[in-house]
Structure formats: structure tokens, C-alpha cells
Amino acid sequence: MADDGVLDDIDLDLVAALQHAPRAPFDVLARVLDSSARTVGRRYGRMLDDGLLRVICEVDWSLLAEGPPAHVWLGAEPGRAREVAEALARRDDTTHVALASGRGEVYAVVHGMTRGATARALVDEIPAVPGIRSVRAESVLRRLTSSAAWRLRRLTSEQEEALATHAGAAAEESGTELGALEREVAAVLRDDARTPYSDVARVLDISESRARRVATAMFGSGMLRPRVEIEPGKLGYRVEAVLGISCPPAVTTRVGAAIAAHPATRFLALTAASSTFVCDGVFRGEDELADFVSGGFPGSDDVTAVECTLQLEVLKRYWRAPAA
Hints:
By secondary structure, the protein is of the alpha+beta class.
């Protein structure tokens, strides 16, 4: 990695490998990348220490809150957009906040612990923040893909196959009864998905075998999704956009699958709004975004409208301020 914090090819290959197998041991990653465990460990530690990268667990909504989140676009009074964004970033119920252009000067994702808390935030609390002149909220009905599934496409098919056995169990049907232990395991792994099972066991005062069994079941059910958290700009994606995409109801499933499969898509959800979908996408530049909104994916012939919001500066991402 260069002194200016720019990631080189070795770093990018490691990021790509971690995206496929976030909990894989360093010796496994080294073997796949034709490197040494020492080099891989040193590279990972440096990116971690410099705040460039975190390997976290994306936690299923049912473990965090009663209902789904809402995506919110805020119009701000002239000259007060940053003030508004900073006020929202300080809230405990915002998972994402960005200065933006398009639908509003500020874009945020709000997720209260209860449906009532989210409603109060949208109806009473956020509109009362000084500097806000308009609020547009869209509630999520169903998540179709998340950032945990997004990949930096650098590895060969052979490398991906070698990592597959370390990627975790395939998603099974999620359980509906979640006990206190599952929530405690999630709390330990949430900020560091690479935490060894022995450390989980020590923190929770349970046996290592029990910690492994509970965590593995949660990984398999999709309740916990290990993922690499890194700013898209560090990976060469200079443009991040939130897109409201509309289509006729009869083709929703087909169009949603096509958008979810697109390499630019980091997040996609079905919404209760004028737009059928809300999509968070990353692009190398404006030309790539222009190609996408101009029909750059299979099934785009069925799209009836696209609204685009550019994220100019992200102040909060997945509950935390992003790395500088």
C-alpha cells in the first residue's frame, strides 16, 4: 500500500478474497493469492490500523429492530445541508447519512428499534431538525440483496472456487425464535466478523463448541452476514448513487433479479413508494452511471422510470462514520 493510502494490486486482491471468505484464515487467503500468511496478515493489519477496512457482520433486521428501515431524502435550506446531515448522523437510529444531489440535499437511512420509533422519527423528530425544508420517506418492503453479497471482481474462477469452502454455509431458512444467546453472539461478532470462536466463548462465558455451533447456525441462516466494509472510493469507484427504479408490477421479480445481479449493485430493496426499487450502486465514473441509467442491464426495457441521487459525501455508513 502506498504512503498516500491508495490500495495497490496486492491490497485489492486481498479485499476481493476477503469479500468471498471474510473469516478465512490468513494461510488460506495466502495460498489462494499465491502469497505468504505473513504478508497477508501484515497487509490486512495495516489496512485495519489505517482505518481503511473493517470486516464486520451485517446483522439481519430482525435482530436489530422490529420493522424494516426507511430511506429518506431531505431538502435543506440554502447553505444548511451539512448542518442537517451532521444532525442526522448523530442520531442513534440512522444507519447511513450522506450529502447528496438529486432528490434531496441529504440522503439517510432511518431504522428505529420499533415501528413506532421509526414512525416518530419520520413524522415528528426529523422534520423538526433546523434547516430542513422537506422530507421524502420510502419504507422498505423486502431486501433483495445487500452489501454483504457485493464483490470486487478481481479473482479468477479457480481462486473463487478455492475460497468457496471457507465462505460459510449456504443460507437456510431463517429461524423465527431468537434467544438471548444468539443476540449476544451477534453483538460480539458485529464489529469484527473475524473474531475467533474461542474469543466469542470467552466473552460470553460459554464453551467454544457452543459458540461455534450458534454462530455457524446464524451464518447459515443469513441472520449474520460477514462482509468487508470499505469505502467504494478506495476500490476505484468514484461515483456512488441511490437510484429509484420503477417498473410494472408484473415484471417486478424479473427486473429485480436483473438489477441485483448487476456488478454495480451493492444494495437493492422493494419499496412502498412511487418507485418500485431503491438501489445503491457504485460506478467507476459518471460514464458508467450513465450507461446504467440508459439501460445498461438485462431487463431494462421493462423499466419505466429512474430517479438518481448522487452521494457527494458519506458521513455515516452502517451505523458508523466511514474511514477518512
